[in-house]
Amino acid sequence: MTAQLPKREFSLVPKIVNGGIAGIIGVSCVFPLDLVKTRLQNQQIGPNGEKMYKNMFDCFRKTYRAEGYFGMYRGSAVNILLITPEKAIKLTANDYFRHKFTTSDGKLPISSQMLAGGLAGAFQIIVTTPMELLKIQMQDAGRVAAQAKLAGKVVEKASATKIAQQLLREKGIIGLYKGIGATGLRDVTFSIVYFPMFAMCNELGPRRKDSSGEAVFWWSFLSGLASGSFAALFVNPLDVIKTRLQALKKADGEKEFKGIVDCITKTMKYEGPTAFFKGGLCRMIVIAPLFGIAQMVYFLGVAETLMGIKTSQY
Asked: CATH number of the domain at 12-307, please?
């Protein structure tokens, strides 16, 4: 399938600002569910089949009861701080490559759309990997501490700053990129699926009445919801692998993983194929509004309005 697109100017700065605003709003809305997703994905089944959380709702209830409202936002500071460059890179890179790959007659083949999405995913891991690594430690700290408490042990309270400093001291900058292979695999695959699907869905909707030729904002929001939830479920097995590889602290009895293949092998052997879809519903609920909000803000042109830039005909 080839998309027929009007040729347009590419304005970098407003797109970066739009991506940043969209990321902050989206993360602030869905972070508690992302925390639940992380804990479900890191949870391993004990030797007697025991597990701390039965499902998404049980995890949410136990986390809220043990750690309160603010406990649901553990790790949000580093995520909100880094989500601006992460979303800005992802959305801007995709738009940039789509602009470059569009032919002079305004056509963009599906293969070029997928390539643009894949390149956007590859660029974003520069920021995503350290962000995810630090966020996961903070999000999973409550689960590890709770299991340690049951075993009569005490786990030192973690902070993103302490974790980052320790990794930098012991392993240098490379320490912050633990799990980069799995992160890249997840993000490139997600972007290859998400961006072309979003573009196709977005093209089907009603257009604005101005001269931009863009879809109305609510259609961009719905397109982001649908495309984000599908892509999120599609790459959930890769997200489980990434999350487990990036967890620096394990509860007693939980297995360590040496790499992607080792993680896949051990997870399949001890927990079965369904383990790769742990937190899948949670991830869909997180990603759908995150990208719905992101695309709505991005296509509304909030930055252009704030900066007094008039959108031009493409």
From this structure: 1.50.40.10
